[in-house]
Amino acid sequence: MKNLLFTAAFSLMATLCFAQEPAAKPIVLKNQIVEASCGTCNFGLTGKSCELAVKIDATSYFVDGTTIKDHGDSHAKDGFCNAVRKAKVSGSVVNGRFKSRSFVVQKADKAKQVQENK
């Protein structure tokens, strides 16, 4: 009886150990060009106000390490609330947010004007 109980308990523990999903591979970028814009105005993210976001592999993330105000007037014609811009970034996604080590916005002539599509 002890052997049967021990075997059942061991089998259950082994099953639970192997049923775990592997940890998600972290997203790390180094000098990669991504789309950047206001997450609430253009990328459909939920936020309290206008906040800088990037789109990586069709998924949008708010940015930590730089702010929307660090890159000019966000409500100007080519600002982040009215245009989706390109940026060269380095950093990683941690807890659903992009932690920026480097964030350089590309020239405005490469911007895709969101306002023209409205």
Low-confidence stretches: none
Number of helical runs? 1
- Succession of helices and strands: HEEEEEE
Class derived from helix and strand content: mainly beta
Overall spatial form: elongated
How many beta strands in the DSSP annotation?
6
Strand content: 35-45%
Strand order of the largest sheet: 1-2-3-5-4
Gyration radius over CA: 22 Å
- What is the number of domains? 1
Separation of the first and last Cα atoms = 73 Å
Q: Give the helix proportion (percent range).
A: 10-25%
CATH class category: Mainly Beta
Write down the CATH topology: OB fold (Dihydrolipoamide Acetyltransferase, E2P)
Corresponding CATH architecture: Beta Barrel
Q: Determine the oligomeric state from the structure.
A: single chain
Major sheet characteristics: 5 strands, mixed, barrel
Mean pLDDT: 85
3D architecture notes:
Strand 2 and strand 3 form a beta hairpin. The chain has one domain: OB fold (Dihydrolipoamide Acetyltransferase, E2P) (Beta Barrel). A five-stranded mixed β-barrel has the order 1-2-3-5-4. Helices cover 14% and strands 38% of the residues. The protein is built from one helix and six strands.
Write a short abstract of this structure.
With 118 residues, the chain is mainly beta.
List strands and helices in order, with pairings.
Layout: H1 2-18, E1 28-38, E2 52-56, E3 59-64, E4 83-94, E5 97-105, E6 112-113
Parallel strand pairs: 3-5
Antiparallel strand pairs: 1-2, 1-4, 2-3, 4-5, 4-6
For this entry, give a set of tags:
118 residues; mainly beta; OB fold (Dihydrolipoamide Acetyltransferase, E2P); 5-stranded mixed beta barrel; 38% strand; elongated
